[in-house]
Specification:
It contains 14 helices and 8 strands. By secondary structure, it is of the alpha+beta class. Helix 5 (81-94) runs antiparallel to helix 10, helix 7 (103-114) packs across helix 9 and helix 9 (240-275) runs antiparallel to helix 12 (378-388).
Length: 418
């Protein structure tokens, strides 16, 4: 059953002194562990009770984490993309729903980072620095083919009206601004960025996926939403390198969420083996922590988590190089953007296989009691499997192979986002 979400923005207030000095990159990142620790405290209870984390997002607005990538020249902390990827991993280790729900916002943030002089960047950067969050929805379901649009943006006097239905509005329920793609009166793809609480924008809590249940990834009904001319954003113009870079970043965001989930798998496995699990009847040890087979399981999960973290960090560095190249107008920009896309695609294949296996092995640390709902250990497998369905590994393998065998790069040049 669809339940319309009513955003509670009463507790969302801008900082009292907009002229106060901004927190540095180092200060923001230093607080990350304590912020993640607080988020982790209620993660299992929230999922079991299906409680969307509105309060967490009210808090995150004032941590500096949501504006980390704003360049110093625009008054921001100037964090790197590698910094932001580690933020995603750390938040996902606490609650993968929270990290996942920031995907659109961090995408908007990246657009500011790689094109700080753009009108949209100048227009909204202060909003980002003040803690405002940006979300949106572009995909539609029940269309004859994927990626088709039925949402319309038509002129109405000196303004426009936006009408249609969107899905996969991940994180939009927690945001202040929402963006949507649509077809204009000539059938061209265009877009609009409007306040989330504008009349006619109805964000629904109807996501019924088995995993990532609290990302608010359901639908949005758009009923004659008023759009002003300066809120229209082109979806066809713009730098193709920026589009490709942002597509790779969007995919890496999900892989980073998986990395965080595996960190959580490891911590849950260790905690359970140390405190709750009993040794098996055939074990030579009186405790689970002394059982050689349990020890091996923990070791295997630890190795998988380490390998995933190393891979993610390496891909993030290639994206930082591409981002720097875009800003500088590097002559080898195509090589830089292509290198990051290839690295990311390869990472998805390896990380996906390691992660899903790690989530399964968690149950080998105990017997039937490891499947108790109170632990909610199955959420790790469900969450990883759900994320992997956004980026099909078979497709990634084929696209990579086609590139190396035949030089085919259409998927990379198009900058597809799954």
């Amino acid at each position: 059953m669809s339940v319309q979400l009513v955003q509670d923005t009463s507790a969302v207030k801008p900082p009292p002194d907009r002229t106060r000095s901004r927190r540095s990159r180092e200060e923001i990142l230093a607080d990350l562990p304590s912020i993640a620790k607080e988020i982790a405290k209620g993660a299992v209870a929230r999922e079991l009770g299906r409680e969307l984390p509105f309060e967490i997002f009210r808090t995150l607005r004032h941590t500096g984490l949501t504006s980390l990538r704003v360049p110093e020249q625009l008054g921001g902390p100037g964090g790197t993309l590698a910094d932001q990827v580690e933020v995603i991993c750390t938040l996902a280790a606490a609650d993968s729903n929270v990290a996942h729900a920031l995907r659109s916002h961090f995408g908007f943030l990246e657009s500011i980072a790689v094109d700080p002089g753009a009108p949209v960047s100048r227009k909204y950067v202060q909003e980002v620095l003040d803690g405002k969050l940006f979300g949106g929805a572009h995909m539609e379901i029940n269309t004859p083919r994927p990626n088709m649009l039925r949402t319309k943006l038509v002129r109405h006097g000196d303004r426009y009206l936006l009408t249609g239905k969107k899905y996969y509005a991940t994180g939009a329920a927690f945001c202040d601004y929402t963006s949507f793609t649509a077809l204009d009166e000539d059938g061209r793809v265009t877009g609009a960025l409007v306040p989330a609480n504008r009349k006619g924008v109805h964000i629904l809590d109807d996501w019924d996926g088995m995993g990532q249940r609290l990302t608010a990834s359901g639908g949005v009904d758009l009923d004659d939403v008023e759009v002003f001319p300066d809120e229209i954003t082109s979806r066809l113009d713009g730098d193709p390198f920026v589009r490709r870079h942002n597509a790779t970043r969007a995919q890496l965001h999900l892989v980073a969420c998986i990395a965080g989930i595996v960190r959580n798998v490891f911590s849950d496995a260790v905690g359970y083996a140390q405190k709750q699990a009993r040794s098996a009847k055939h074990s030579h040890s009186e405790t689970a922590r002394g059982d050689h087979f349990v020890q091996q399981v923990i070791g295997d999960i630890a190795a998988a988590s380490h390998a995933i973290d190393v891979i993610i960090a390496d891909v993030a560095r290639t994206l930082d190089a591409a981002a720097a190249g875009i800003v500088a107008g590097a002559p080898n920009l195509d090589d830089l953007v292509m290198a990051s896309a290839l690295a990311n695609s390869k990472a998805q294949i390896v990380v996906g296989k390691l992660a899903i296996r790690a989530a399964e092995k968690l149950f080998d640390t105990g017997g039937g009691s490891a499947t108790s709902r109170k632990y909610d250990f199955d959420r790790h497998w469900r969450n990883i499997r759900t994320i992997l369905n956004h980026n099909p590994l078979l497709l990634k393998g084929r696209v990579i192979g086609d590139y190396y065998l035949n030089g085919e790069r259409a998927d990379f040049d198009e900058g597809r986002v799954f």
